[in-house]
Every structure is written in structure tokens, then in C-alpha cells.
Design a protein that fits this description.
Helices cover 45% and strands 18% of the residues. The chain is flat. By secondary structure, the protein is an alpha+beta fold. The protein starts with a helix and ends with a helix. The protein has 20 helices and twelve strands. Strands 1, 2, 3, 6, 7, 8, 9, 10, 11 and 12 form a ten-stranded mixed β-sheet that branches. A two-stranded antiparallel ribbon has the order 4-5. It folds into two domains: 262 residues, no CATH class; 132 residues, no CATH class.
Length: 462
């Protein structure tokens, strides 16, 4: 039967997912969290959700991305300086004001009023208000340090011309009344007034048109923006489609909410013999083992970085550095929620990265049935067993080029090493090559080495 099926195979998935057009980096992690409440809902309780047969603890992708993004920004600041950082903020006006003050060499309060007026006009454009009618203070945007510097430098260098254009726009707007008291809508006077009003409005909107079209799109958008993306509804040139997708972190075991009742003692009241607590608090918590998953489209990430107009080698270096940052930030980031009272920091006991040209490799379905510890082995080890078993069961539908596994359990690590040494990596993990790493440095170095030596990343940087 299998021989007969060959003549009907019109699509060769091995060729389709060969990685020549794009490669995807899949990141998996298994982590056991102690008593914690790192991600809470609107009533202050640890988030949960039903999956498969039971209620599980959950950490939202927004929470994960927030902490990983800030960890990545800190790495960029240390490695590259401020040139490669970015801000998600409603206070971009303040950031531009600070840069203009630096350009002029004055204190913020000493900036001439005409510069402040130009900054206000720039922040009203669709490139900053994202097409909303609200004031800039109400619009949250994602902007890089280089974009802020470019805006400030343009205002300072083109100061005289911008002010002259602004003056003309104001005069035209003043000369064209907004409302014409004429009931005859088809009268020539009414039509003429409307045209003047539209021309004045258009002229006012186009004060920074040349800058927004030609200079702002050439700015360096930072590694974070290239990964997490951003959207401007009325200024599509500034849109960046995210290249890194993150799944909600899912508990592998069933959980029941528990509550922590805490009382804080008033030292002075206690000294004076008075009874009663000075403060009362209760909060929910649980302990769970989590499966984390994220994937990065490497080709999309590189295309996003091309906004910076870098040469081929510089772009390649920035892309590889960015990929290493993704690996380290996903592995090392600690969630801060309720850490002050629970100190629930923990590291991954199992961390795996796959490189593939296509296919689905998220392993959530391994936990359709909740993991339990009724045999005394613990949910952590059994959760790791589940992802290893899932990969073996799905090996025939896997087109992974490389898998790098970092596992803390020495016994399980030796078992995987034995599988690899026997040449059984493909049938057990569905991967052409499996590497067992000793530390996180081995992981990101191994991924970068593969991309440099065995992928088309140089061609994608053209």
C-alpha cells in the first residue's frame, strides 16, 4: 500500500519545508513554579483557564511579553547603548522635548516657544496619533530611541522653514471660514468657501509630510519593535508586523485556588499591649508546572530590521544578535507579580529550541489530560516525559532541522544523550540533529552557529 501511495504524492512536504524560503525558531519550556500569583485577573486572583479535562493555572502572553520585552531592552541597553532601545508610551511628546533641549544645549524650561509649537504640530500628525482624534497624551505608541532623536534633529535643523510653513497654514486657515451662513448649498460662494477650508486643512496637515514620508521610515526601529511589532492605522508606513508570537503559559496539572490570609502587626500597638492587627490582606495563589511556547519567524524578523537601511553584514550581525537575545530573554526572564511577598522565582527545568522550515510544533496537546503525581514521581518529571513522548509520537510529521535541549535532571539528560549517540534522534524527536546543551550559552551559540553555517540567512539579508 505504501508503495502505491507514492504515485499519488503530489506535494512533497520535505521539499516544501526545506527552510530555503524561511526558518522558524520554536521555543519550549517546562517550569515548576512554587506558591505564586504572578499574573492576576481583574479581582486580583491568579489567572486560570479550562484546558482538556480540568482547570489549569495560566499566565497570559501579554504578561510574558511585557517582562521579556523589558529584559530584552535591558540587554540592548548594556550591549548596544541607547541607540537600540524603544519605548511603549503616551509620553512621546516629553521624550521629543528632552531631545530638542539636548540638541539646543538648553534646559527643558528654556526651550523657545516656537520649538515647542513645532513639537506640538508634529505630535498631531497621523505618524504619532495613530489616526485617533484624541490628543497625543491618550495615544499609546511604540517608538524607538533613534526615531525620537531623528524627530528632534529635524525640528532643530529645519526650524526656520517649518515655522514659515506653519505661519502660512495659519493664515490660510484664518482666511477660510469653517462655516458659511448660506442656505443655498450649491451657491458659488458656499462651494468656494468649502474649497478654501479644505485647502487650508490640507496645508496644515502637510507641514511634516516630507519628513514622515521620507525620513522617519528610514529610522532604526530597535530589536524589540522588530520582534513585537506595532500598528498605526492612518500611517501604514510605520506599521511593523510582529515576528515573535507567544502562547499563554499553560499549567500542565489541575489546580484549585488557595488563599493566603496575612496580618501585619503594628509594633507600637503591640508594645503598648493593644490587641489587633495593623493591616489585613488576603490573596489567591497556587503552585503549578507550566508549559511555555513561542515561535519566531526568522525571515520576517530580518525583513523588519531592514527598515534601518543597514548594509548586508551589519544587518546579518544585528539579526543574529537579536535571535540570541530572544533565546536568553525567554529563558532568563523572571515574572515580578507578588514577588515581594512570595519570591516565586524559578528557572526552566526543561528548555528546548527547534529550527524548522515549516510545520506545527507547539506541544500543548501533550497535556490534554492533566498531569498528576499519584505515583509519587512528581508533576515536573512527568510533564517533561509528556513533551518527549509527544515528539516521538509526532516524529513522522516533523521536519525539524535542529533541536537543542537543555535539561536539568541528570538521569533524563543521560537518557537523551544515549538516544542521540545511538543515532535515534530523528525517530524520537523528529529532528535531523539533536544537541544536548550544558547551559544557556550552549543553546544560543548552537543556534547562531547553525544559522551562519547551514541556513540561507545571508541571502535573506540582501
Amino acid at each position: 500500500m505504501e508503495n502505491d501511495m507514492g504515485k499519488y504524492n503530489l506535494i512533497n512536504l520535505s521539499e516544501l519545508y526545506d527552510g530555503s524560503g524561511n526558518l522558524y525558531m520554536h521555543l519550549h519550556g517546562i517550569k515548576l513554579m512554587p506558591y505564586s500569583s504572578v499574573n492576576r485577573d481583574d479581582v486580583g486572583q491568579q489567572k486560570t483557564g479550562y484546558y482538556g479535562d480540568s482547570n489549569r493555572s495560566r499566565i497570559s502572553s501579554q504578561c510574558l511579553n511585557f517582562h521579556r520585552r523589558h529584559f530584552l531592552e535591558e540587554m540592548s541597553l548594556k550591549l548596544d547603548g541607547k541607540k537600540n532601545i524603544s519605548y511603549r508610551t503616551t509620553k512621546y511628546y516629553n521624550l521629543i522635548v528632552e531631545k530638542v533641549a539636548q540638541e539646543l544645549g538648553v534646559k527643558i524650561e528654556d526651550i523657545p516657544t516656537e520649538y515647542v509649537e513645532l513639537i506640538n504640530e508634529l505630535c498631531k500628525t497621523p505618524a504619532f496619533t495613530a489616526g485617533k482624534k484624541e490628543t497625543s497624551k491618550e495615544t499609546l505608541i511604540y517608538i524607538s530611541e533613534h526615531e525620537i532623536e531623528t524627530c528632534a534633529r529635524y525640528i532643530c535643523e529645519k526650524h526656520d522653514g517649518l515655522l514659515a510653513n506653519l505661519k502660512k497654514c495659519k493664515e490660510k486657515k484664518k482666511a477660510a471660514p469653517e462655516n458659511v451662513e448660506n442656505n443655498d448649498e450649491d451657491s458659488s460662494e458656499s462651494r468656494s468657501s468649502k474649497k478654501k477650508g479644505k485647502k487650508a486643512k490640507k496645508a496644515e496637515e502637510n507641514i511634516f509630510d516630507e519628513f514622515i514620508k521620507n525620513e522617519l521610515p528610514q529610522c532604526h526601529i530597535s530589536t524589540s519593535i522588530a520582534l513585537f511589532g506595532r500598528m498605526f492605522a492612518s500611517c501604514p508606513d510605520r506599521n511593523v508586523i510582529k515576528s515573535l508570537c507567544t502562547s499563554h503559559s499553560m499549567g500542565t496539572n489541575e489546580v484549585h485556588k488557595e488563599y493566603d490570609y496575612m496580618s501585619a502587626i503594628d509594633d507600637v500597638k503591640a508594645r503598648d499591649g493593644e490587641q489587633g492587627a495593623g493591616h489585613l490582606l488576603d490573596s489567591s495563589f497556587n503552585s503549578s508546572c507550566y508549559y511555555d511556547y513561542a515561535n519566531l519567524s526568522i525571515r520576517s524578523f530580518i525583513d523588519n530590521l531592514k527598515y534601518a537601511q543597514l548594509d548586508k553584514e551589519a544587518l546579518k550581525k544585528e539579526a543574529l544578535t537579536g535571535i540570541a537575545k530572544v533565546i536568553v530573554s525567554n529563558y532568563s526572564t523572571q515574572l515580578s507579580g507578588k514577588n515581594g511577598i512570595m519570591c516565586s522565582c524559578s528557572k526552566y527545568d526543561y528548555f528546548q529550541i527547534d529550527i524548522a522550515g515549516g510545520g506545527v510544533y507547539a506541544m500543548h496537546t501533550a497535556f490534554d489530560e492533566a498531569v498528576n503525581s499519584d505515583d509519587g514521581r512528581g508533576i515536573l518529571k512527568k510533564s517533561i516525559d509528556r513533551v518527549i513522548k509527544w515528539q516521538k509520537n509526532n516524529a513522522k510529521e516533523s521536519y525539524k532541522k535542529l533541536s537543542i535541549i537543555l535539561i536539568l535532571d541528570p538521569d533524563r539528560r543521560d537518557e537523551i544523550l544515549e538516544i542521540v549517540s545511538q543515532g535515534k534522534a530523528k525517530e524520537n524527536f523528529g529532528s535531523d540533529k539533536v544537541i544536548v546543551a550544558d547551559c544557556i550559552d550552549d543553546v544560543h551559540i548552537g543556534i547562531v552557529k547553525y544559522l551562519v553555517e547551514e541556513s540561507n540567512i545571508s541571502d535573506w539579508c540582501e
